[in-house]
Amino acid sequence: MAGLPLFSGLSFRLVFFIVMLIGTNWFIVTYARKIQKNPDRSLAKDIPVADKLKSVSLDGVAFSTRHKLVMLTFVATIATIVIGTISFKWDMNKMSAFYIIGSIICGLIAGFGPNKIVATFMEGCTTIFPAAFAVGVARGISVLMTDAKIIDTIVYNLSLPLSKVGPVIS
Fold first, then answer.
1. CA 13, 18, 23: angle at the middle one, nearest 5?
2. pLDDT at 56
3. pTM (predicted TM-score)
4. Which residue in 94, 69, 70 sits closest to 82, CA to CA?
5. What's the whole-number mean pLDDT along residues 89-110?
6. Sequence-ordered alpha helix ranges (H) in 38-64
7. For residue 112, which of 78, 73, 56 has the smallest C-alpha distance?
8. Which of 63, 94, 98, 133 qualifies as a cystine partner to 90, CB 3.0-4.6 A?
9. Helix runs in the chain, H state only
């Protein structure tokens, strides 16, 4: 949309990402140690989350050949989607279709029947629905503003305050 090359500013973004990653991890580790020493200092101590967490014990579960094949299929699916997107310019429909095909293959390898595959897939879909809905609404607004030919005016007026500062700040 902005007409920038795909990897423009990569060195700056990479350095910024590494700095933020280190800073965030330092904060999380420091906070976790503080809470481990005194759980009453937790910011979330009064929030009941135990009923929302799904705990699964993997004690005694061996990493079988079936598990390895499912993991390999998953990695191959993601790799194929990345290669298809970069090399063959796949759009969202092709990526989604391949993701669903990969999910079905993983389910079959795992020994699931069709009903279990669909039920498991739908359970996963319900967790991402709010985010997908928000993206859909945002895309709808973008299309509406583009078709109404008002997006350029809005972007221009939003960019005016940035024109008074240097390119690094903006």
1. 125
2. 75
3. 0.55
4. 94
5. 93
6. none
7. 73
8. 94
9. 10-37, 65-87, 92-109, 114-147, 151-159
Tell me the torsion sign for CA atoms 168, 21, 2, 160. Answer: negative
What residue type is assigned to position 99 of the chain? Y
At residue 101, the 3 state secondary structure works out as helix
Which tokens belong to 51? Answer: 């009923």
Closest CA to 111 of 65, 166, 77: 65
Which residues, in sequence order, are CB contacts of 34 under 8 Å at separation 6+? 41
Selected residue with higher pLDDT from 4 and 148: 148
- Structure confidence by residue, pLDDT tens digits, 39-55: 888 888 887 776 666 67
Q: Are 110 and 121 in contact (CB under 8 A)?
A: no
CA atoms within 13 A on the CB side of 10: 4
Across all residues in the chain, what is the average pLDDT?
89
Q: Which residue in 125, 119, 123 sits closest to 99, CA to CA?
A: 125
Distance CA 3, CA 152 (A): 13
What's the token pair of residue 40? 């009453």
User: Domain spans of the chain?
Assistant: 10-44, 64-111
Q: Is 165 helix (H, G, I), strand (E, B) or coil?
A: coil
Cα angle 119-122-127, degrees, rounded to a multiple of 5: 130
Torsion angle of alpha carbons 100, 105, 106, 111, nearest 10°?
130
